Amino acid sequence: MGGFDLFAPGAGHVAILLALRVGGLLLVAPVFSARTVPATLRTVLLVVLAVLLAPVAWVGVRAAGDPGLVAVTPATFLTETLIGLALGLGAALLVGAVETAGDLVSTTIGLSGASLVDPLNGAASSLLTQFSQMFAVTVLLAVDGHLVMLDALAASLRELPVGAAVDVRAGLAALVAHGSTLFVLGLRFAAPVIAAAMIGNVALAVLTRAAPQLNVFSVAFPLQIALGLAAFVSALAFVATWMVGWGGEYAGVVERVVQAMLP
Q: Nearest 5°: CA angle at 86, between 84 and 92?
């Protein structure tokens, strides 16, 4: 394994802490955390990634100080898991934003009652919510988002060596603060559909006043769904275009969390 010696002083602790960081990433990262991925496969992936990244982690620890001083304690256990969660959460927030947009669209156009069991999360959600989630995951894989997350994991081993002292409280606060990103981006993605639905409702209100004999309830519901779906399909192209450059947003989220954890 390159320059990593499993029998060197502190090597066992470095390997355990590295596995914790990798496990934190796999716990929340899109695709890796899907319930459709068997636990056995996820465990094998954790071991493989830990083995491949062990030389990088060892170099980072040696550059920071004596590897023999690295220890597995409750503090380092929490720290490494938190760093892995931050790396995975940066991508999960972006996928969750598209999923939130699908949920907002379903509620706006009246399709929130059409729900099925989500195969990725195992929970019931609307059809457009599931479609939005699968669309976001597909685009994420198409632009090598999974490789970007793994590259960020390797870079974190150089910037924040395993076992390093960090500010856990500030890191947790930064993670919670970034939760608003999910709702802000979700509202932006759903804004065209919400606007189209509002315009349709206003047009129906004017039509009702102009022709009182018209049974507006017989045309309002299908018209609202048709307008909403048309706007939703049109907005998908803009969402996909935005996600092509998602790496910059992802790097910004991860960098802010990591900077907050630095002592």
A: 105
